[in-house]
Predict the structure.
Amino acid sequence: MTAQQEREEGLARLGEEVSACRRCPRLVVWREQVARERRAAYATETYWGRPLPAFGDPRAWLLVLGLAPAAHGANRTGRMFTGDRSGDFLYAALWRAGLASMPSSSSSDDGLKLTGARITAAVRCAPPANKPTPQERDTCLPWTVTEAGLLPSVRVVLCLGAFAWDGALRLRGQLTGTRERPRPRFGHGAESPGEPWTLLGCYHPSQQNTFTGKLTESMIDEVLERAAELGGATAPGEG
């Protein structure tokens, strides 16, 4: 077995362990309540109702770090950023950047594949009001530390929002054993070089941001273009 195959087996095991996590009582209660009561539009569906494993390429150079699963999106479908408008916006951008095989994502078995990218979240359970706590983020962090160790090809971490940015800084501190001073500040397009990868900021593709124009298609496209530059990746058709 090659080292890459061992890492991929490790990622698969990690996904199973993440899916069984019950470390945060508030999140366990909420995610399971949502899965039982369900939204009327999805009343006949069986919700995932568990923590979300990461999704994407095990050889990724780009790690996309979100906030947390949406109650009736990923918490329903069982795949990160799948089944809601935030996911539609994100996957369309990844498709335009040549990182996704399809421009939309509706279910975990729709055939979507990522190449060069992997998606996870600072908190892997759906939180009430889409607002996880800092304590829940820190409780979830060890899962991401383990995952980062199994993704040696990652060169850029794209943080969707300030909460994810803060989580990524904590992750980098855990991996390097250092604390960054002054602490890099989040902003759309903000960059923080360092080891083992560069942080890149992007406004979260929430409906609040995309409907109001705070985040547009051109804005996220520019961030992904910059991610490719930082990661040494080539644009579609250039290599």
Observations:
- Confidence is low (pLDDT under 50) at residues 234-239.
- Residues 3-231 form a domain with the Uracil-DNA Glycosylase, subunit E fold (CATH 3.40.470.10).
